[in-house]
Amino acid sequence: MGERLGYYPGCSLHTSAREYDLSCRAVLRALGVDYAEIPDWNCCGASSAHGAGHALSRALPLRNLMIAEDVGEDLIVPCAACYSILRSTTGYLQKKSAEARKLQAKVEQVLGKPYREKVRVTHPLDLLTRPEMLNKIKGQLRTSLNGIKLAPYYGCFLVRPEIAAFDNQEQPQKMDILLRELGAEVVRWSYKTECCGGGVGITEGSVASSLVEKLVREARKAGAEAVVTACPLCQANMEGRQTQGLPAFYFTELVGLSLGISASKRWFKSHLVDTTSVLTKVQGGISGGR
């Protein structure tokens, strides 16, 4: 890709989901994607701003969108929750309601510049499954996932609301396609878009734990050796609230492993569930690399 892309990590990727951030950046570099983290970004408000007021829940992502316009026309957003709120905010503003116009004018006044509506909010899963990127990945594969059985887990935010969905909302396939290209066996299961309860993890912990245990149990029943996700909240919830020892990988970690990026050794050490049993089955392990 020739043009520079903006990159918005959000709060989780700088803290609890550091391995997602590191693996995403490493994969983008390995595939020759020119990107730059947008400067002076703020929390998008996906987790709590709506509780403080509707205007704040739109103003926070709008500020990030306006900053991103100075970096590139595409904004890569790995966190599924951040992606959903940023993408839905662009749709909210495009409707040009009186409320939206008033909010936009107020944020423009604060920042001292106009919102030009030129940024496309893009999730890295969508980016990496475009035909030209899949061809690049296939051309650079160094390690096969060697038929390990994986359950792709999309969760809520990549398929809801409709404006944020870049895949089939009922039966998404892009992660499935990518994992097969890496040499994994993708298991069929009926829970790939079910909620993990991440949104109520603090207020209703027992509910979240119950939902996670059901997801892990069904993934095991389908024959999965691990779950693969694209959401920091889902990943933390899936590994931190289960008792069955099923690892939950970020899809970018497995792409990086397959591309032979040696830094992947460090990413896997951050997991709450031991990944050794799965990684030892990968042909060539995590040796070699860049």
TrEMBL record:
Q: Which UniProt keywords apply?
A: Oxidoreductase
Pfam families found in the cross-reference section: CCG
Q: Where are the transmembrane segments?
A: none
Residue ranges occupied by any Cysteine-rich domain in the UniProt entry: 6-86, 153-238
One molecular function GO term is: oxidoreductase activity
InterPro entries, sorted: Cys_rich_dom (IPR004017), HdrB/HdrD_reductase (IPR051278)
User: What PANTHER family does the entry give?
Assistant: COB--COM HETERODISULFIDE REDUCTASE SUBUNIT B 1
- Protein name as annotated: Heterodisulfide reductase, subunit B
Q: What's the source species for this entry?
A: Desulfosporosinus orientis (strain ATCC 19365 / DSM 765 / NCIMB 8382 / VKM B-1628 / Singapore I)
